[in-house]
């Protein structure tokens, strides 16, 4: 798909700039790597599960930051015809992310990693979890986005700190569970 869009840009058919984000979370992000297994589970008092290794750094984008990055690409013609990795807060390990969720939650919670064997087993019955197998390389080793091209071109980008973003995401999940 990306190559087709870039080809359409080169032919003059469309103006295209592609923004790519790592795994993401935030208000409105239900079907994300951290959605139900982290935020919804934490609020329900269930163990919160990180998909992949807990000790590996992982770039996670916050949806409002991703939106700001996409707006930047859409407004600046220097972005045209290229693929861009969108800025995010510094990478954290899975355990560090879960610790931020627990701190924002304000009460203890059990944590666990959902490893590859469990993913394969659940994937037998759940196509969404099965699809994670295609990107498991992002889960069992460092997965850190390099956004230096973006900041070198468009200038500094202040991403929302994970602690602030996690708190806002929990607030959104609370509001949703309260029927608001």
From TrEMBL:
Organism domain of life: Bacteria
Cited SUPFAM superfamilies: NAD(P)-binding Rossmann-fold domains
Pfam families given in the database record: Epimerase
Domain NAD-dependent epimerase/dehydratase, residue spans: 5-79
Protein name: NAD-dependent epimerase/dehydratase domain-containing protein
């Amino acid at each position: 798909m990306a190559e087709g869009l870039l080809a359409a840009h080169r032919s003059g058919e469309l103006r295209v700039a592609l923004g790519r984000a790592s795994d993401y979370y935030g208000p409105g992000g239900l079907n994300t790597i951290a959605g139900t297994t982290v935020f919804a589970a934490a609020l329900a008092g269930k163990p919160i599960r990180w998909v992949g290794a807990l000790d590996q750094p992982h770039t996670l984008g916050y949806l409002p930051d991703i939106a700001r990055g996409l707006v930047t690409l859409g407004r600046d013609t220097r972005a045209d015809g290229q693929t861009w990795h969108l800025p995010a807060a510094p990478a954290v390990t899975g355990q560090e992310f879960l610790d931020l969720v627990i701190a924002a939650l304000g009460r203890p919670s059990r944590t666990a990693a959902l490893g590859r064997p469990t993913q394969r087993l659940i994937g037998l019955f759940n196509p969404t979890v099965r699809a994670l197998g295609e990107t498991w390389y992002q889960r069992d080793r460092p997965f850190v986005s390099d956004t230096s091209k973006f900041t070198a071109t468009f200038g500094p980008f202040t991403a929302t700190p994970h602690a602030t973003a996690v708190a806002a995401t929990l607030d959104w999940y609370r509001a949703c569970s309260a029927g608001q």
